[in-house]
Amino acid sequence: MEASRSIPPQIPGYTLVKRLGSGSEADVYLYQQLSPTRQVAIKISKGKLDPQAAARFRSEANLMGQISSHPNILTVYASGVTATGSGYTVFEYAPGGNYKSLLAHSRLTVEQMLDLGIRLASALFTAHRRGIIHRDIKPSNILISAQGMPLLSDFGIAGSVYGRPGIGFTIAWAAPEVLAQGGGGKESSDIYSLGATLFATLTGQSPYEYFYSGLLGDAKGKERAERLKTIILNNPLPKFNRPDIPPQVEKVLRKALDKTPENRFYSALEFARALQNVQYELYGHMTQAIIEGIPNYPQNLRRRNDSGNAVPQPAKRSSWVKPVAIGLSVTAAIVALVLAFVFVVAPNMDTASDNTTTQVRNRGTKDHAEDDSDSAITTGSVPSVQDLTGTYVSDGGKVKFTWVNPSPEKGDSYVWSPVGDSGSDPNTQGTSTKSTHVEIDPSDGAQTCIQVSLVRADRQMSDDPAIYCVANQ
């Protein structure tokens, strides 16, 4: 390990194996968990956590914990603070790498892409109906488990309807409305990003990089990013004109990639159903959509008989839980690709550089020499509240927090929630208010802390919530 890199901390119950990667805010290491015995990936913050960074780590773990029982969402096991004050989150280890690395040397067939798309759309709908928007779906955020299963990961910049500390995107995969507004996004924006990602599994590039490579030329860095953004905002998505991509597949992907959000699929579930129908029409089988409380297959599904006429086929239900077994031949084909990746590409990942994509950072964000060049960019579209402060109310023993809106707009509201050692359930959802103050009962701990986010009328939220703590009397 290079001397410039931070020394990984000792975490009780875990033994360090090796470093896996690094980002602007945290490093990721492979550890051996002692009980139960298994390998895990642990994300550790760089340096001691201030209140905002601590809230970021806790929020990510809580978000992932709400939805990670889904077989295609990376599982979070635990989180905590090291003896040196760094925050850490323990995740499922995905030894197969990610789809960005896989696509650097392989492509999926249409059949494999449809299988992948159904699984990811199911995972995405699971997140959406919990109020969680991913905001940065792309190949590098789709990991590959030991069983070859795709795992949607990196909800670190995800947003919820209750406010989150980071709002980000990556230009090549972001919906036009996200680029135009400078950040944020909704369910429809995630659907666009998933469509762009599925397109890339067939072609190796995001849609507009693929079709407009001539306009991008040899531009690098910020210049390339600006060119690509301009192209996405101003140029149409050409017809695919690929004989290996059936028209039914192009129709579904184009709907997901429509420039107008209202013209896309109404939900990720509708996207999954469309992919299922195309898969069955083309190949005669169908991947299950794994969503709690939702049938795995479309209702009134009709299958083809030998004469080509449709006959009724009953819907089936699945009892899949993690870890999930590989039951389809198409997934087995993906596993073959994964094995090639694990034994040929993965050993060189730590030293490989990536010059194929660009990274753009907003002012105030620190660049890091080891950051993945395909990582998210953070925007400043909605300011944080200012002058957040708190004090005890003399009559009643409550703690009163007040704040100031630095740039009021019609329809503004605020979302606050306990953080830190406030003694609240970490899954407690935020409370919305129109007021610039709130009174709450003090916590049982040493201090009472809250975070407050500004929410615009269009539901865009502060990039960074304000956090304040009052020492308990």
UniProtKB/TrEMBL annotation:
<feature type="compositionally biased region" description="Polar residues">
    <location>
        <begin position="352"/>
        <end position="362"/>
    </location>
</feature>
<feature type="compositionally biased region" description="Polar residues">
    <location>
        <begin position="424"/>
        <end position="435"/>
    </location>
</feature>
<dbReference type="GO" id="GO:0005524">
    <property type="term" value="F:ATP binding"/>
</dbReference>
<dbReference type="GO" id="GO:0004674">
    <property type="term" value="F:protein serine/threonine kinase activity"/>
</dbReference>
<keyword id="KW-0067">ATP-binding</keyword>
<keyword id="KW-0418">Kinase</keyword>
<dbReference type="InterPro" id="IPR008271">
    <property type="entry name" value="Ser/Thr_kinase_AS"/>
</dbReference>
<dbReference type="InterPro" id="IPR011009">
    <property type="entry name" value="Kinase-like_dom_sf"/>
</dbReference>
<keyword id="KW-0808">Transferase</keyword>
<feature type="region of interest" description="Disordered">
    <location>
        <begin position="352"/>
        <end position="382"/>
    </location>
</feature>
<dbReference type="InterPro" id="IPR000719">
    <property type="entry name" value="Prot_kinase_dom"/>
</dbReference>
<keyword id="KW-1133">Transmembrane helix</keyword>
<keyword id="KW-0812">Transmembrane</keyword>
<protein>
    <recommendedName>
        <fullName>non-specific serine/threonine protein kinase</fullName>
        <ecNumber>2.7.11.1</ecNumber>
    </recommendedName>
</protein>
<feature type="region of interest" description="Disordered">
    <location>
        <begin position="412"/>
        <end position="442"/>
    </location>
</feature>
<feature type="transmembrane region" description="Helical">
    <location>
        <begin position="324"/>
        <end position="346"/>
    </location>
</feature>
<keyword id="KW-0723">Serine/threonine-protein kinase</keyword>
<keyword id="KW-0547">Nucleotide-binding</keyword>
<dbReference type="Pfam" id="PF00069">
    <property type="entry name" value="Pkinase"/>
</dbReference>
<feature type="domain" description="Protein kinase">
    <location>
        <begin position="14"/>
        <end position="283"/>
    </location>
</feature>
<keyword id="KW-0472">Membrane</keyword>
